[in-house]
Amino acid sequence: MDINNLKSLLQNRKPRILGSENYSNYAVLLPIIEKADGLHVLFEVRSHTLRRQPGEICFPGGRVDASDKNEGHTAIRETSEELGIAEEEIINVSPLDYMVSSFGSIIYPYLGFIKESARISPNPDEVAEVFSVPLTYLQQTKPEIFQINFKLEPEENFPFHHITGGEKYKWQVRQMEEYFYYYEDKVIWGLTARILSHFLEIINS
Prior knowledge:
Elements: H1 3-10, E1 24-35, E2 38-46, E3 57-58, E4 61-63, H2 71-83, E5 90-95, E6 99-100, E7 105-114, E8 127-134, H3 135-139, E9 144-150, E10 174-183, E11 186-189, H4 190-204
Parallel strand pairs: 1-7
Antiparallel strand pairs: 1-2, 1-4, 2-3, 2-8, 5-7, 6-7, 9-10, 10-11
């Protein structure tokens, strides 16, 4: 390969996250509804019969399908399916910052408003119940934040003899923050709480 071939190969290349072809892509919607006392954030409680994370609190969402127009469409489609409302009843959808998780997935969160005329009828196969929290309450509430430390354990035949420091190599310790919000008898944590915190940072800044 000569320099011209190399330049031609790379000059119009669009960068992406290294290794992202091995990641699973998901999109979620942070739904806003309007009640008599103002704006509320809508949450789901996952069905207790689901294999993954049964009974946990989340936002509607799911895996990006090849047939979806984009990640925003995924968030709308999944919300429509889970809440039993028409896609047209989900309006003013805007992207939040996407997240690359430590567990091989990229999550694309969106904010969207559900029309007052929408009659929510959750899909019982996926949703045990829905509830809402006043936005003013969340804006005035600081989450509790806890650290999770990842323990590094190289496999048994790891080639320490090829790296400076060998078995005494000083690995960079990795940490992850877990956010917790509490409302009445509900505990909002994990990815849902992290997306919620990001949204609140935006509107409170």
